[in-house]
Write a structure and sequence with these properties.
The chain is an alpha/beta fold and 267 residues long. It contains eight helices and eight strands; from the N terminus they run E-E-E-H-E-H-H-E-H-E-H-H-E-H-E-H. It has a single domain, classed as Rossmann fold (3-Layer(aba) Sandwich).
């Protein structure tokens, strides 16, 4: 049995192994599966709360635990430590412009497993921050029917080319474009002044995917009507303002609606 420090309240815990990698996985809810890939620094309380919202909306929320300390609140030191670990980890390739992180192979296998368990037309997949681009790499697998990129931050924007890159190999991009053209849309979320998720990246997605890419870009510039700070980054977690009429609340509602449109058969 998991110890108290290994539990996420309201979720069941198991593990998933593939390709020599094993990670804990936390589940909650019933219905079509949605794989929620947490952001830096780890599976913190706001990510777990997003998972609860997904489950309450009628889905099986599946949260793999890839790094960090389960349920530990965010702090500057914690973020810096886990960012450094990600930079040197073999599972992540934080500067790769034309290749995906190796961990995406494991995540694709998890998506297939979740689809087999939960049924339905496929699964949703959402990445956040460091893992935001992963939803594109997972879309290469036919099981992924509802990919969401929340503030996709890889590759780190250290140059002009990195700012526009998608962290995806040319072969994988070709598959993504084919699937998008065949009717599998992609949803992307970002704040307009987010230095980690620059506008050039969304411009590339628009160019490559055309009308299949739906972008939600929330004004975080000076004098914006909602007082969103220029430093805002995490649309659905840390920087979410759960208030009617707030653009982050609207982004949350659109994300849940996107999952419903793609994962629940008509009727």
């Amino acid at each position: 049995m998991p110890s108290d420090t290994e539990k996420l309240e309201g979720f069941t815990r198991s593990s998933f192994a593939y390709g020599g990698r094993t990670h804990p996985v936390h589940r909650r809810g019933d219905g079509p599966g949605v794989v929620i890939i947490h952001e830096i620094p780890g599976l913190h309380p706001a990510v777990a709360e997003f998972g609860r919202r997904v489950a309450d909306a009628g889905f099986t929320a599946v949260l793999p635990e890839l790094f960090g300390t389960l349920n530990r609140p965010i702090s500057a030191g914690y973020v810096a430590r886990e960012m450094l670990r990600a930079c040197i980890s073999r599972e992540f390739a934080v500067l790769a412009r034309n290749a995906s992180s190796p961990i995406t192979d494991w995540l694709r296998a998890l998506c297939r497993e979740v689809h087999a368990e939960c049924g339905g037309p496929g699964v949703g997949a959402i990445g956040m921050c460091l893992t935001g681009n992963f939803a594109l790499a997972l879309m290469v697998d036919e099981s992924v029917m509802a990919p969401v990129l929340s503030q996709p931050s890889l590759p780190f924007p250290v140059s002009r080319a990195h700012r526009a890159a998608l962290h995806l190999s040319p072969d994988d991009l070709a598959v993504v474009k084919r699937r998008a053209a065949a009717g599998c849309p992609v949803l992307g979320l970002r704040f307009t002044h987010d230095a980690l998720c620059p506008g050039e990246r969304f411009a590339t997605l628009r160019r490559e995917l055309g009308d299949a890419f739906e972008a939600i870009e929330i004004d975080s510039g000076p004098g914006n009507p909602h007082g969103i700070p220029r430093t805002a980054h995490s649309v659905l977690t840390k920087d979410l303002v759960d208030r009617e009429g707030h653009p982050t609340r609207a982004a949350l509602e659109r994300t849940l609606a996107f999952f419903a449109e793609r994962l629940r058969p008509a009727g």
